[in-house]
Amino acid sequence: MKTIVLKLLAWLFSIIAFSAIIIALGGGAAFISRPVGALYVVLWAMWGLVTALGRQRGVASSYDRSQRIFTALGGPIMLGIIVMAPWEYANFSGPIPRDGPVAWIGLALFAIGDILQAVAMRALHGLYTSRLGVQPGHRLITSGPYGVVRHPGYSGAILCLSGMALAMSSLIAIVLSILFVPILIWRIHHEEEMLLTEFGDGYRSYMRRTKRLIPLIY
Questions:
Q1: CB burial class (10 A; 0-12, 13-18, 19+) of residue 101?
Q2: 110 neighbors 216 (Cβ within 8 angstroms)
């Protein structure tokens, strides 16, 4: 119990610290006085809370050793989107208009991504981990959002990152979001190889009836 409380306190501190950084880069009080800026900070805080409550670190495994490239590239890209988007929002006026329809579409995508990740994490009951590996008591989950696509949590992450970029009308963040997708697909490829090894025909059958990230498409 003490470990869980300490973990939540650490995450809460991180959320507050990053929120302060986002506000500062976005122009301070002027940023949160604008509806787009205020909602962006709220959605960011929600995303941080969802991650804190729903994602576990997981146990070390041989499968996770292949993920150093994902950590080395994916982490900085995500951080770049988080900090560069509000900075560009505050310091440039174009070419995408600020606070227009594109921004509100971005906020909607960000909110949907938040919700989708929360639902995916809840469906896995503690099996949603940052480390790639099979956890103690691991079982194949194919219901809820996992009955629609195989990786709804990753779908949510893509929606969150692209939503951030559009909400801030940030070309830098849009480019970084696009770069993040093939890196994430690379991780998914390794994850599915692991699940095929561990669950065999059960996972192979599941793959045949579901798409990876987008229902009916991919």
A1: exposed
A2: no
Round to whole Å and give the CA distance between 13 and 149: 33
The listed CATH number (1.20.120.1630, 2.60.40.1120, 3.10.129.10, 1.10.10.10) that belongs to domain 2-209: 1.20.120.1630
pLDDT, tens digit, 9 for 90 and up, residues 79-107: 899 889 999 999 988 788 899 999 999 99
- Which amino acid does the sequence have at 4? I
Q: Which of 47, 91, 78 is nearest to 173 (CA)?
A: 78
Measured CA to CA, the distance from residue 136 to residue 123 in angstroms comes to: 17
Region of 40 on the Ramachandran plot (φ > 0 left; ψ -120 to 50 alpha; else beta): alpha
Q: Omega of the bond prior to 101 within 30 degrees of 0, cis?
A: no
Q: What is the DSSP string of 22-34?
A: HHHHTTTHHHHTS
H or E stretch covering 74: helix 68-91
In 10 A of CB 37, how many CB atoms?
26
- Contact between 29 and 35 (Cβ < 8 Å): no
Q: Is a pLDDT exceeding 80 seen at residue 51?
A: yes
Q: Is the pTM of this model over 0.70?
A: yes
Kindly state the tokens that stand for 60: 């070390």
Single-letter amino acid, residue 212: R
